Amino acid sequence: MKKKTEKLAAPIVITAHANADFDALGAMVAASKLYPGAVLIFPGSQETSLRHFFIESTTYLFNFKAFKDIDPESVELLVVVDTRQRSRIPHVRPVLGNPGLRIHTYDHHPDTEEDLPAEKSVVRDWGSTVTIITHELMEQGISLNGEEATLLGLGIYEDTGGFAFNSITPQDFAAAGWLKSQGMDIEAINDILSHELSTEQVTYLGELLKNAQTYDIHGIDVIIAEISTDKFVPDFALLVHKLMDMEKIDVCFALGRMADRIHVISRSRNPDVNVGKICASLGGGGHGAAASATVKDKTLAEVRDDLFALLYSQINPQIVVDNLMSRPAVFIEGDKTIADAVELMTRYGLKDVPVVRPGSKQCIGIMGHKTADKAVSHHLGSVGLSEYMTRKFETVEARTDLYRVMEIILSNRQRMLPVIEDGDLIGVITRTDLMNMLIEEPARIPDSLLPDRRTERNIAAQVKNRLPQAMLDLLKAAGDLGQELGWEVYAVGGFVRDILLGRPNLDLDLVVEGDGILFARKFAEKLGGRVKAHTKFKTAVVILDDGRRVDVATARLEYYEYPAALPTVELSSIKMDLYRRDFTVNALALRINPGRFGQLVDFFGAERDIRNRTIRVLHSLSFVEDPTRILRAIRFERRFDFQIGGQTMRLIKNALNLELFSKLSGTRVMHELQWIMNEEDPLACLMRMEELGIMEAIHPLLKLSRDRVQVLTELVKVHNWYKLLYLEHEITPWKLYVLGMTMGIKRDQIQKITQRLHFTRREEREFLQLRDMIGDALMKLMGWREGRSKLSRLYSILHPIPVEGILFLMARSRKEHIRRNISQYLSRLRYLTIEVNGNDLEEMGIEPGPIYTRILSRLTDAMIDGRATTRKKQLKLAQKLHKDLSSHEEDSE
């Protein structure tokens, strides 16, 4: 048997971006001098020279470890060099969720929207990240040995093109000079960076030369060269460097199709061409002079088209915001009402209006006509604009280039873009303004920004790796049936979300762009099963013969006639079906028809929110239409260790201020509470609800006192302990936790709670009886003494009580010996049975009657106390008990 290797504790970890270059490697080693004792995690590299160098020398010189060898939960400080982007450090992703994790970053790349939130961030627009950290070493008086100085020098030399790029700065020269004084070996650097090309590499270089074409982009010559091969080309970046030197090229983009991916390597010696910005738009990164990107799920021709659009948009763009915007802007002040905004937008025919701070032109939000109209229909016209306006929005200045405008309006789906000058609103660009211009010049639109192109990528590999074969077969059968009927079929919601999260979830929901009920019936016929249809909602449940359930819905849009109402259903497309869902992370669909199996449909940025661990509603009236979504937001936040987004949190607080929970039926509230109490950590959800004032909003008596929190904490522990016993008696979690939530409430008031939560008469009767039994048992347990009181007495106190009540007693008790013996009762005593039954008593000649119960009860007590542990002893004791009880009855007569 293989011995399990203990994971290494690593309080401080240093790493860099995936596909590391020498700048990344050198920066990691340089950072290790600033953070003594840190563990270095090498992210891997595609460059052959770097891999060989790393393997042959670096691992032996420095504290490098594989990520699998460290304990991710032990990491307290993460130091990231040569990048700040979350997506470029997938090899340490598990660490990012550590509570209280501190992050330090060192980087020379431009800011991006997905930059890590860092406690310390040292960012300089210098030639390399090694330069930045080298200056830190110089300032702190930290010296290096020759091997270290040479490795750092490699990073500077590579990222500055041997001091040939225009991006070089005086700081790079100064850093190199200091490294030379520390023993940097320039000959060794030249040997590593200038090795001879292999025969295969010469062939690829010849193909690049043959396919290279020159394009005049706004007066600048740009070389685009392509190769196509079914295998990975090592040192592709080196080939591009050689190509530029041979042909005296200033700007070069090399596109290499290697198997199923397109690799883009770009270099620029022209300050007007920032290749880092262009590659970032393709999903990669870098800086102005050198950058790269790897593109999946696109052809070489598609990537080339995207590249042309980016080049035309970013190289000396002829169209800027000033040429497009409408001025002066129509706006509304933030102290006005929603009804005022509707009147203004109707008067001017606007779909959106910027909201400014009262008495100024500082833009603080955007109000949409559609949202305002819905709010008025919910009788919220008198509510202030600030409650429902969009607060998270982008602005631009008059000289901003066209690509940035397209990125915001097309890619980020912000329909109106405020134009700002010196902090004041001077105009707006609408989606209509942009589209009118693009009709004349459609080639300016990069394919990566087109919504239809951007919203789908194929995750078939993840689906196959993360689902059991039986579920895969079920998905394919549903897709095949959809193909036969001519309808698109999708797996949707949490099922798709959990595939991306790598969490188990076999609750399959299907949406059909057709007749969902007819599809369900055909599906049941095909696989064997029955159907429960809900005609009103156009949904059905397929219950297969093996017990599996599949929910099927017709693609639909839900709208709500008044706040907290049940939904009215209309036919719609998959996009509108997803839009009706509660949060972006659940607004995902997966195509399962043949030929398109595994294509992910994401209209609303769900993948981005999953990466950022954010819970976000799809529209600002979501909680007005259905306040139970607030409880679901909290449930998902705690289950996935996500964070409710800022705008979503403001909408929650607004819904509470409007007292929308009072409009909810108790049945719907209780249904959501039951889901919460089925979570692994229901207390985390309840505490979050208490923090936001939701417990009191449900009912004032439900406010969580310190004593209730203490008991609920213990209830979670005893519940988890009980589940680990795997006993046949399952419990009803909501009964257990409602006992804790209502602890201390008097009997005459408890009915206010049960009525608010719409308990059935039976549920109310059983719950009140359970509380009474617990109260009676508590009094009896106070008199029970270990060593002096019999164990059978404890058994008789606990046996009549349902398991939920016993677990509550265990959590409620502060005496360890009582808790210990209650656990003994739950795990062993209550399953003990005597070996004598009524037939045995009848054979003894005892007349059937109440005496049977008394005898069998005393036999059970004797067995528990160890006085009658065998059948022989129990039969003997039964005869004695019959004699004693009969004599007692005669005496009493």
Quick one: how many beta strands? 31
Estimate the strand proportion.
15-25%
Question: What number is the mean pLDDT?
Answer: 86
Gap between N and C termini, in Å?
A: 74 Å
Number of domains: 6
* Radius of gyration, in angstroms, nearest whole number: 35 Å
Largest sheet: 8 strands, mixed
Cofactor: Mg(2+)
Keywords: Magnesium, Metal-binding, Nucleotide-binding, Nucleotidyltransferase, RNA-binding, Transferase, tRNA processing, tRNA-binding
Pfam families: CBS (PF00571), DHH (PF01368), PolyA_pol (PF01743), PolyA_pol_RNAbd (PF12627)
Organism: Pseudodesulfovibrio portus
Descriptive notes:
An eight-stranded mixed β-sheet has the order 20-29-28-21-22-25-24-23. Strands 4-3-2-6-7-8 form a six-stranded parallel β-sheet. The chain has six domains: 186 residues, inorganic pyrophosphatase (n-terminal core) (Alpha-Beta Complex), CATH 3.90.1640.10; 116 residues, Roll (Diaminopimelate Epimerase, Chain A, domain 1); 133 residues, CBS-domain; 222 residues, Beta Polymerase, domain 2 (2-Layer Sandwich), CATH 3.30.460.10; 133 residues, cca-adding enzyme, domain 2 (Orthogonal Bundle), CATH 1.10.3090; 55 residues, no CATH class. It is of the alpha/beta class and 893 residues long. The protein has 38 helices and 31 strands. It is 46% helix and 16% strand. InterPro entries: CBS_dom, CBS_dom_sf, DDH_dom, DHH_sf, NT_sf, PolA_pol_head_dom, PolyA_RNA-bd, tRNA_nt/polyA_polymerase. It comes from Pseudodesulfovibrio portus.
